[in-house]
Design goal:
The complex is a heterodimer. Chain A is mostly beta strands. Helices cover about 0% and strands about 60% of the residues of chain A. Chain A contains no helices and eleven strands. In chain A, the strands form two sheets. In chain A, strands 2, 4, 5, 6, 9, 10 and 11 form a seven-stranded mixed sheet that branches. Chain A has a four-stranded antiparallel sheet with strand order 1-3-8-7, with no helix packed on it. Chain A is globular. In chain A, about 35% of the residues are buried. The radius of gyration of chain B is 14 Å and the shape is globular. Chain B is mainly β. Chain B starts with a strand and ends with a strand. Chains A and B meet through strand 5, strand 9 and strand 10 of A and strand 5, strand 6, strand 10 and strand 11 of B.
């Protein structure tokens, strides 16, 4: 069966510090991968998606970046965090095709102080 | 442009009441897929149902039922005899066949509070 992992689960970082969130998927190959952010009490905003190794598409201009160094690994990074980067970050994967539901990881709660 | 609207920000009901969560979508694609997800307090999104644009049959799964109507671009979700464990945020989402990323466009969510 497939599983998706995210770490860390929670993170408190000062403004201006770097960020690295990791997401890995097990039990499937060549998944589509996604990073979403959910601000407190709000809906999900798609940040990045990837349809293959090294292929990253950005949905929203920001100071975040994403990388996919391996087939089942997706990393979200920032060189300098802003207060507005606080939120709940969710990684998801899906099988090839729009009919497939996305499976979400447990999320990382990021607080920037 | 594609869009999903969940006009109900928050709904509060008493246990055992029926409740309907509304979802209205916009898309230019003729082939698309609609989803509902549940987000309990733990935060992880749980998949509930998927519907494709060619299948307008209503679906029932236990206390849950879904009403898909292309004529009104709606995909509403009804919980019958609600329970406290149904308390969560519910998201409706859209995926378009013409979008090679297969990304989901989410509504803003409806927070459901079921009181004992």
């Amino acid at each position: 069966s497939q599983t998706i992992h995210q770490w860390p689960a929670t993170l408190v970082q000062p403004v201006g510090s770097p960020l690295s969130l990791e997401c890995t998927v097990e039990g499937t190959s060549n998944p589509n991968l996604y990073w979403y952010r959910q601000a407190a009490g709000r809906g999900l905003q798609l940040l990045f998606y990837s349809v293959g190794i090294g292929q990253i598409s950005s949905e929203v201009p920001q100071n975040l970046s994403a990388s996919r160094p391996q087939d089942r690994q997706f990393i979200l990074s920032s060189k300098k965090l802003l207060l507005s980067d606080s939120g709940f970050y969710l990684c998801a994967w899906s099988r090839d095709g729009p009919w497939g539901e996305q499976f979400f990881g447990p999320g990382t709660r990021l607080t920037v102080l | 442009a594609q869009k999903v609207t969940q006009a109900q920000t928050e709904i509060s009901v008493v246990e055992k009441e029926d409740v309907t969560l509304d979802c209205v979508y916009e898309t230019r694609d003729t082939t698309y897929y609609l989803f509902w997800y549940k987000q309990p307090p733990s935060g992880e999104l749980v998949f509930l149902i998927r519907r494709n644009s060619f299948d307008e049959q209503n679906e029932i799964s236990g206390r849950y039922s879904w009403n898909f109507q292309k004529s009104t671009s709606s995909f509403n979700f009804t919980i019958t005899a609600s329970q406290v464990v149904d308390s969560a945020v519910y998201f409706c989402a859209l995926s378009e066949a013409g979008d090679s990323s297969y990304k989901l466009i989410f509504g803003s969510g409806t927070r459901l509070l079921v009181r004992p």
